């Protein structure tokens, strides 16, 4: 959780090996992702900021392409694509090219693509960006289901209600530094039972 330019996306990009840190280390399950980038990419499902779909491929083709990159073969691949299309309610655009999709449509297809190989860990950069109210609620419900199954989910957001509803542990960053960390209850206790919004403003303003 942090304002624009705080370093949220940069942190995620280091974890999914697009950027290398200038100092320190980045680890997933205690494995150094800089030393083992291919391992990290297999372990992660990534929803990057901006989605980054291939515009000339259809929804199904975008999802299936990443499935093949992760070694999924037929008939399991088609079954998995169908499952994701249904779960994310993508039927209407399943066979349409991604060029011209709305931001919400791009986000949902990119999320399906990130989940195609059933990764153990998910990195989601503002996952509800561009989604309408119903799609946002559906996505939050699914993320709650995934969390209940033991999936590790790291997400960045600037939406307080989303963070409070979904996250077990909250990290507030400003100017590239962690300025507060803990559960919602722990943060409220530390800051005198203030709302998460007030805690955010206080920690970011004072950093």
Describe the fold and architecture.
It is a single chain. The chain has helices at residues 8-15, 37-43, 59-69, 76-87, 103-115, 133-148, 160-166, 184-190, 196-205; strands at 27-28, 31-32, 44-47, 121-125, 152-156, 170-174, 177-182. It is of the alpha/beta class and 207 residues long. The strands form 3 sheets. Strands 3-4-5 form a 3-stranded parallel β-sheet, with helices on both faces. Strands 1-2 form a two-stranded antiparallel sheet. A hairpin with a 2-residue loop joins β6 and β7. α3 (59-69) packs across α4 (76-87) and α3 packs parallel to α5. The chain is globular, with a radius of gyration of 18 Å.
Can you give me a brief rundown of this structure?
The protein has 207 residues and is an alpha/beta fold.
The proportion of residues forming helix, as a percent range, comes to: 40-55%
Distance between the termini: 14 Å
Helical segment count: 9
N-to-C order of helices and strands: HEEHEHHHEHEHEEHH
CA radius of gyration: 18 Å
Structural class: alpha/beta
- Major sheet description: 3 strands, parallel
| Strand order in the largest sheet | 3-4-5
Global geometry: globular
| Total number of beta strands | 7
Which residue ranges are poorly predicted, with pLDDT under 50 across at least 5 consecutive positions?
none
Beta content: 5-15%
- The mean pLDDT is 91
């Amino acid at each position: 959780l942090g304002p624009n330019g705080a370093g949220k996306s940069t942190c995620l990009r280091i974890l999914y090996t697009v950027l290398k840190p200038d100092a320190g280390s980045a680890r997933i399950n205690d494995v150094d992702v800089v030393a083992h980038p291919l391992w990290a990419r297999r372990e992660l499902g990534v929803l990057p900021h901006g989605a980054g779909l291939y515009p000339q491929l259809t929804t199904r083709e975008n999802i299936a392409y990443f499935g093949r990159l992760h070694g999924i073969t037929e008939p399991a691949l088609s079954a998995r694509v169908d499952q994701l299309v249904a779960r994310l309610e993508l039927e209407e655009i399943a066979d349409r090219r991604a060029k011209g999709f709305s931001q919400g449509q791009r986000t949902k297809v990119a999320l399906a693509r990130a989940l195609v190989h059933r990764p153990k860990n998910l990195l989601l950069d503002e996952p509800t960006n561009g989604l309408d109210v119903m799609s946002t609620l559906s996505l939050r419900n699914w993320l709650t289901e995934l969390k209940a199954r033991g999936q590790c989910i790291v997400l960045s957001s600037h939406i307080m209600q989303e963070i409070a509803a979904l996250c077990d542990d909250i990290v507030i960053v400003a100017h590239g530094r962690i300025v507060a960390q803990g559960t919602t209850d722990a943060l409220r206790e530390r800051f005198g039972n203030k709302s998460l919004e007030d805690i955010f403003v206080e920690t970011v303003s004072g950093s």
